[in-house]
Amino acid sequence: MNRELSRRQPAYGWRDFALDRLPFVAAFLVGITFVAAVILLDVHQSGTDVSSGSLLYLAILAVFTLGAWLAYDGFRKRAFYRELNAAAVRSHELDAPLVLHSASTREHQAVARLLGGLHEAYAGELARSRREQEIRRHFTMQWVHQMKTPLAVIDLLLQESALEGRPEGAPPDGRDRSIAEETERMRRGLDMMLHTARLDRFEVDLNVRQVSLRELATAVLHDYKKLCIHHSVFPKVVGDSTAETDPKWMSFVLHQLVANAIKYSKTKPGSKKLLVAIEAASGGGCTLTVRDEGIGIPPQDLPRIFDPFFTGENGRSTEESTGMGLYLAKRVCANLGHGLYAESTLGLGTEMKVTFRPGGIHRM
């Protein structure tokens, strides 16, 4: 709103120019009045006479000289004011002060030098901050990849332990199952950290194509097969459609939605359903809905579930909650040009709906 207003109104116009010089004009006129008064007083004391025409001529000459000077002053500064207005329109851009080239007075030159110095200092600080951010991002990605190696070794040791110490077909004991679950939690946490680091350079890691949403959802649910069995959650995929998206990023979004659905369904007793429904939308496009029968989201928390680090009432009762999963999913969907919305009834379950536009994703 303020930016649009600044585009309609110049930052510095002729009205501002006149108002700035109004005290000078007033002082000049007062000075002329005093001069005329002194002349009249002197004439009166000396007994001589002076014509009113001469005084009027003197006043007109003084006012004309003042007007000529103001006109000259305004026109010589016109280019600077034009550049100032252009910079104000681009005030949200980093290089806006660099358009001030036509400073005609020492005052304007000092202001232009000050703005140029501030721009240079800010640009240097921004470049330094970006370099540090890139170093942190690179370190994070490298660290995540290094931490995945021990997890793979733990999985391998669990498989070997299962083959050596348990009869064929027998279920894993409680210790091995707990280790496997905690390992999977660590893997999901590392994946979230990796995708968080990659979001800053989203366009570099983008591969868009037509994707079968049913195949994508089935693959994601397969990753949670053991967890669903353990918590009596029965997943199902209905419908099918294709959408233009990035399969890897969309898989990350579905992992967050499915993981949340299981996490907030497992505390309810008995069997629960987890439905992934895919259907074409009227007017083109399609929707993918992840519907669970979990504990639901309190109404006061629902508007904030996509905020970063917001865990809400449910999250505070769950040690696994970081408040980042849905935030990252929302950001990924926004970058892909998809919508992500939530509906929930406390105690009955939650629906997370991803909408795919008929025109495809945003072009990066």
From TrEMBL:
<feature type="transmembrane region" description="Helical">
    <location>
        <begin position="21"/>
        <end position="41"/>
    </location>
</feature>
<dbReference type="Pfam" id="PF02518">
    <property type="entry name" value="HATPase_c"/>
</dbReference>
<keyword id="KW-0812">Transmembrane</keyword>
<dbReference type="GO" id="GO:0005524">
    <property type="term" value="F:ATP binding"/>
</dbReference>
<dbReference type="InterPro" id="IPR005467">
    <property type="entry name" value="His_kinase_dom"/>
</dbReference>
<dbReference type="InterPro" id="IPR003661">
    <property type="entry name" value="HisK_dim/P_dom"/>
</dbReference>
<dbReference type="InterPro" id="IPR004358">
    <property type="entry name" value="Sig_transdc_His_kin-like_C"/>
</dbReference>
<dbReference type="GO" id="GO:0005886">
    <property type="term" value="C:plasma membrane"/>
</dbReference>
<protein>
    <recommendedName>
        <fullName>histidine kinase</fullName>
        <ecNumber>2.7.13.3</ecNumber>
    </recommendedName>
</protein>
<feature type="transmembrane region" description="Helical">
    <location>
        <begin position="53"/>
        <end position="72"/>
    </location>
</feature>
<dbReference type="GO" id="GO:0000155">
    <property type="term" value="F:phosphorelay sensor kinase activity"/>
</dbReference>
<keyword id="KW-0808">Transferase</keyword>
<keyword id="KW-0902">Two-component regulatory system</keyword>
<dbReference type="InterPro" id="IPR036890">
    <property type="entry name" value="HATPase_C_sf"/>
</dbReference>
<dbReference type="InterPro" id="IPR003594">
    <property type="entry name" value="HATPase_dom"/>
</dbReference>
<keyword id="KW-0597">Phosphoprotein</keyword>
<dbReference type="GO" id="GO:0016036">
    <property type="term" value="P:cellular response to phosphate starvation"/>
</dbReference>
<keyword id="KW-1133">Transmembrane helix</keyword>
<keyword id="KW-1003">Cell membrane</keyword>
<keyword id="KW-0547">Nucleotide-binding</keyword>
<feature type="domain" description="Histidine kinase">
    <location>
        <begin position="142"/>
        <end position="360"/>
    </location>
</feature>
<dbReference type="GO" id="GO:0004721">
    <property type="term" value="F:phosphoprotein phosphatase activity"/>
</dbReference>
<keyword id="KW-0418">Kinase</keyword>
<keyword id="KW-0472">Membrane</keyword>
<keyword id="KW-0067">ATP-binding</keyword>
<dbReference type="InterPro" id="IPR050351">
    <property type="entry name" value="BphY/WalK/GraS-like"/>
</dbReference>
